[in-house]
């Protein structure tokens, strides 16, 4: 099996379920978005959620993806930056326990925290304090970090640091890795559209986007967006939520429609787990159609749980479903 190296914001998710969206309005967090916040807003969030039931878990898009890959039996790595605090130790220890090889830099800032609000319809909204995670810079990277891996999976949330993204992709290419880019969030794409385009055309082999991200990048609806993105890279993936997903590689196009899902609890990590399933299938050498089907199994499983830490029984069920799929 090929090995995957993830790179992204090292965050700890603090999840809370809300009865309605009034709290989001109070905190000026647009529903369904990821907004970067400062320490004062983080303090306001803590005050507003005091007494509410919270759930803590490792977070960050790429971290979620490599953790899911490890649960499937892969041996991924992860590059990020944490603070010298309990939150940072929790992040590092948790990933290592899952079987992820961590390459974490440290600094004196507090570790990053993603306050995650889960609306009654399962939609999630992030107020993200990056802290130490935002201080991962190009000079922190060295070529040996990429040695021994076959793919670099990098999250679009890092796009604000152009030098970091360029350095990571250049080092990956020097080591012969294929580069996978998740577009992360529609507002990130809108703000960095030209730089996204530069990276995709020059360095990226596989692009993951949801419907809104693909629209922000191309100005087109899913099918047309898929065609445009696929013309610039090897494999393009456009996820269309309840409608399923679209994938194109060369002349091969796969459309997988989703079955109705009951019991959607929290959509946090759905895209991250989709990517994990796809990359798992790809590194195992399965067909494009099987990759998409495995992606759907993982994404369906995670949205029926709060957060992205699935119990052992759920992973056993996922593996049985994948085994059954491969027998067909």
UniProtKB/TrEMBL annotation:
Supply the CDD domains for this chain.
adenosine_kinase (cd01168)
Span of the secretion signal?
A: none
Q: What would you give as a GO molecular function for this chain, any one? A: kinase activity
Q: Does the keyword ATP-binding apply?
A: no
Annotated Carbohydrate kinase PfkB domain ranges read: 50-311
Q: Which SUPFAM superfamilies match?
A: Ribokinase-like
Could you tell me which InterPro entries the record lists for this protein? Carb_kinase_PfkB-like, Carboh/pur_kinase_PfkB_CS, PfkB_dom, Ribo/fructo_kinase, Ribokinase-like
Which PROSITE patterns does this one have? PFKB_KINASES_2
Q: Which keywords annotate this record?
A: Kinase, Transferase
Q: Which family is it part of?
A: Belongs to the carbohydrate kinase PfkB family.
Question: What name does UniProt use for this protein?
Answer: Adenosine kinase
Which species?
Bacteroides mediterraneensis
Tell me the organism's taxonomic lineage.
Bacteria, Pseudomonadati, Bacteroidota, Bacteroidia, Bacteroidales
């Amino acid at each position: 099996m090929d090995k995957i190296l993830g790179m992204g914001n090292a965050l700890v998710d603090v999840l809370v379920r809300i009865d309605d969206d009034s709290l989001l309005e109070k905190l000026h967090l647009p529903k369904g978005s990821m907004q970067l916040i400062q320490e004062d807003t983080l303090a306001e969030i803590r005050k507003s959620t005091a007494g509410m039931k919270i759930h803590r878990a490792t977070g960050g898009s790429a971290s979620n993806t490599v953790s899911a890959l490890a649960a499937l039996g892969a041996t991924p790595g992860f590059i990020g930056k944490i603070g010298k605090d309990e939150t940072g130790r929790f992040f590092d220890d948790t990933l290592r326990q899952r079987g992820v090889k961590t390459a974490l830099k440290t600094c004196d800032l507090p570790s990053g925290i993603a306050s995650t609000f889960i609306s009654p319809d399962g939609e999630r909204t992030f107020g993200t304090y990056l802290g130490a995670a935002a201080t991962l810079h190009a000079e922190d990277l060295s070529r040996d970090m990429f040695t021994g891996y076959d793919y670099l999976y990098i999250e679009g949330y890092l796009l604000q640091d152009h030098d970091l993204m360029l350095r990571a992709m250049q080092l990956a290419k020097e080591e012969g890795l294929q580069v996978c880019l998740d577009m992360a969030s529609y507002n990130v794409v809108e703000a960095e559209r030209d730089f996204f385009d530069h990276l995709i055309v020059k360095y990226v082999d596989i692009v993951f986007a949801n419907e809104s991200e693909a629209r922000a990048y191309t100005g087109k609806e899913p099918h047309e967006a898929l065609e445009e993105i696929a013309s610039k890279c090897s494999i393009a993936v456009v996820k269309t939520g309840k409608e399923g997903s679209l994938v194109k590689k060369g002349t091969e196009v796969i459309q997988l429609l989703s079955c109705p899902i009951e019991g959607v609890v929290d959509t946090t990590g759905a895209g991250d787990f989709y990517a994990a399933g796809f990359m798992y299938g790809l590194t195992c050498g399965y067909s494009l159609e099987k990759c998409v089907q495995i992606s759907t199994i993982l994404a369906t499983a995670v949205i029926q749980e709060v957060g992205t830490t699935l119990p052992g029984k759920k992973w056993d069920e996922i593996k049985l479903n994948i085994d059954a799929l491969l027998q067909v």
